[in-house]
Write a structure and sequence with these properties.
CATH superfamily of the largest domain: Collagenase (Catalytic Domain)
Helix content: 40-55%
Protein name: Peptidase M13
Keywords: Hydrolase, Metal-binding, Metalloprotease, Protease, Zinc
Radius of gyration: 26 Å
CATH architecture of the largest domain: 3-Layer(aba) Sandwich
Largest sheet: 4 strands, mixed
InterPro entries: MetalloPept_cat_dom_sf, Peptidase_M13, Peptidase_M13_C, Peptidase_M13_dom_2, Peptidase_M13_N
Cofactor: Zn(2+)
Strand content: 5-15%
CATH topology of the largest domain: Collagenase (Catalytic Domain)
Family: Belongs to the peptidase M13 family.
């Protein structure tokens, strides 16, 4: 295909001539869209990712509804995956049955909570319900061991709270949210038919506040070196003497052997929640458990309970004013239950294998560009460069979909039992996850479905993963010139590779092992650069945040990924030209198409409550800064637009941060 046959990938009519890219690239590209776009009532934020996610939801709905819904009742043990998917969806969409049942599906569990007479009984019941999907005293999951990446290990992390983060229980800016939350607990318990709802809400909220008091904050909780605390089973028991782990695991149906060694992520927080497991706290724990049961099931109960749950978790926390359509929530339920079963059909219908081949080429260019850049770094010693290049050589790209699909034959489904289906799925996942311990690492496993609009880097596997659904405009389009693809999906690829070399990913070697492969001087030079980037972001406050600024320490990993990703994508684009001059298309130079495409990918509008929530808990910076602050650090941007001192995006050359 000749350059003449390709388009620029940029809609020139969308560019705002009143806003110069030199001052605000983000609004130069997205300003008209932001001005005319109303955030849908069921969304807290809306933009390019949300549009693609909605498209994927519609495609999945068509797949699900294309299978004839099975007759009401339990499916045969040998039912096909398609029938199971259809039955799951049918159980969610049966509003009449959900409303008729009300809170009845959880009534027995709530009665068992009322009947508890001791802390050991409470621990046993929490364990039993945790197997069915309830959040327990701690967060638990299985992953490969950072110290020995060839084995699986259980991680035990802080948990036990219903607000997004420990800061919500203590910071003045969330005082109103706390009052709303306390009232919400009481309302939900009342709707579920629990007696003494007001008193129980006070007890549950007070206990959660004390649990949160020992939680680590978000910045500390992303430091892998602090989080990697290996403990034997006896060592775990030692830091939580009040929690009988043998009894807890027995009630859970978890083999104690799987906990022979564990990683305790935040020991003080895990110990802190256990310290509260004493007889005088029994009433508080019963209130907490009743609330946990209601909260975890609310979206699956009557419309009244589901809407009331949304009033807090949707409207109060994020500003969204309407629940998503029932069918969209049904799709999410199915995807959370049997996502790869749907994903296999999604790929058959919607994934262009040519896109996979084109992505392979893009990834190759990005990796080679990283190689060139690492070799040319002026701040890194030859010794550390060798190790960095070894890690780069061991990167595993995964594109589109898994080579091996998950087996869901163990799940049984009843089209008339929504809560039962949810518990069946939870038990299946519980058994599948714990079943990994002691077995060889499955390097073919994916941790996102193909229909997910996202991408990720997994440090323990040293892999970059790009699901099928993100490989479409505005991120990737085989019909447009390379500059636009490198500026969007190329920068996403570069971002994910960059996570292998961010402040945390750089602690892992090419085999996924947590080890220090840096010289002391190189780590110091790296941290000088990351410190400068932290300082830049700490000074930024997005629109709608009422002056609250970005947390540069919380977002540093993603900011490093963005900075390296875009810089390396630019290098990769030039490399792809093989020495030729970039063509001018639609009156735009290659550099202009590249940077406009980058800005286009971050198109988003947010509600103020959501903006504040994300500033508090999200390791990603607001989209306007992911766009603007990154380009301000790139010489190529300043050259493309001939920026000058006085332009808002001008940074003095010595203030521009270059890491990779």
């Amino acid at each position: 295909m000749t350059h003449d046959a390709l388009t620029s990938g940029i809609d020139l009519t969308e560019l705002d001539p009143a806003i110069r890219p030199h001052d605000d690239l983000y609004r130069h590209v997205n300003g008209k869209w932001i001005e005319r776009t109303e955030i849908p009532a069921d969304k807290a934020r809306y933009g390019s990712f949300a549009v693609l996610a909605e498209n994927a939801e519609e495609a999945v709905r068509d797949i699900i509804t294309g299978t004839e819904a099975p007759a009401p009742g339990p499916l045969a043990a040998d039912a096909s995956e398609g029938d199971k998917v259809a039955a799951l969806y049918a159980s969610f969409m049966d509003l009449e049955r959900a409303d008729a049942l009300g809170a009845e599906p959880i009534a027995e569990d709530l009665a068992r909570v009322r009947a508890l007479t001791s802390i050991p009984e409470l621990i046993a019941l929490v364990g039993e319900l945790e197997r069915q999907g309830l959040g327990g005293f701690a967060g638990m999951f299985v992953d490969n061991d950072p110290g020995d990446p060839a084995r699986y290990i259980v991680f035990v992390m802080q948990g036990g709270i219903g607000l997004p983060d420990e800061s919500y229980y203590r910071e003045e800016q969330f005082a109103q949210v706390r009052e709303q939350y306390r009232a919400h607990i009481a309302r939900m318990l009342q709707l579920a038919g629990v007696e003494g709802a007001d008193r129980l809400a006070e007890l549950a909220f007070d206990l959660e506040t004390r649990i949160a008091a020992s939680h680590w904050d978000k910045v500390a909780s992303r430091d892998i070196q602090k989080l990697y605390n290996l403990r034997t089973f006896a060592g775990l028991q030692e830091i939580t003497p009040e929690l009988d782990w043998s009894a807890y695991l027995a009630a859970m149906g978890a083999p104690e052997s799987a906990f022979a060694e564990v990683v305790v992520g935040q020991p003080e927080a895990v110990a802190g929640v256990a310290k509260l497991l004493v007889a005088e706290e029994l009433d508080a724990w019963k209130a907490w458990l009743a609330w946990s049961i209601v909260r975890s099931s609310a979206a699956l109960l009557s419309q009244e309970l589901s809407r009331a749950n949304f009033d807090f978790y949707g409207t109060a926390l994020t500003g969204a004013t309407e629940q998503r359509d029932r069918w969209r929530r049904g799709v999410s339920f199915v995807e959370g239950s049997m996502g790869e079963a749907v994903g296999r059909l999604y790929v058959e219908r919607h994934f262009d294998e040519d896109a996979k081949a084109a992505m392979d080429g893009l990834v190759e260019h990005l990796i080679e560009a990283y190689r060139e850049s690492i070799e040319q770094l002026d701040w890194m010693s030859p010794e550390t460069k060798v190790r960095a290049l070894e890690k780069l050589d061991r990167f595993t790209p995964k594109i589109g979909y898994p080579v091996k699909w998950r087996d869901y034959s163990a799940i049984t489904v009843d089209s008339g039992d929504l809560v039962g289906n949810s518990r069946q799925v939870a038990e299946y996942e519980f058994t599948r996850e714990l079943g990994k311990v002691g077995k060889p690492i499955d390097r073919d496993e994916w941790f996102m479905t193909p229909q997910t609009v996202n991408a990720y880097y997994n440090p323990g596997f040293n892999e970059i993963v790009f699901p099928a659904a993100i490989l479409q405009p505005p991120f990737f389009d085989k019909r447009v010139d390379a500059a636009a693809n490198f500026g969007a999906i190329g920068a996403v690829i570069g971002h994910e590779i960059g996570h292998g070399f961010d402040d945390q990913g750089s602690r892992y070697d090419g085999d996924g092992k947590l080890t220090d492969w840096w010289t002391e001087a190189d780590r110091t030079a790296f941290e000088e650069r990351t410190g400068a980037l932290i300082g830049q972001y700490n000074a930024l406050s997005p629109e709608g945040a009422d002056g609250q600024t970005v947390n540069g320490e919380l977002t540093i990993g993603e900011n490093i990924g963005d900075l390296g990703g875009l810089a390396i994508a630019w290098r990769a684009y030039l490399r792809s030209l093989d020495g030729a001059e970039p063509p001018v298309i639609d009156g735009l130079t290659g550099a202009e198409r590249f940077f406009l495409s980058w800005a286009q990918a971050w198109q988003q509008k947010s509600r103020p409550a959501e903006t504040v929530r994300l500033l508090t808990i999200d390791p990603h910076s607001p989209n306007e800064f992911r766009c603007n602050q990154i380009v301000a650090n790139l010489d190529a941007f300043h050259e493309a637009y001939d920026t000058k001192p006085g332009d808002r995006l001008w940074l003095e050359p010595e203030q521009r941060v270059r890491i990779w």
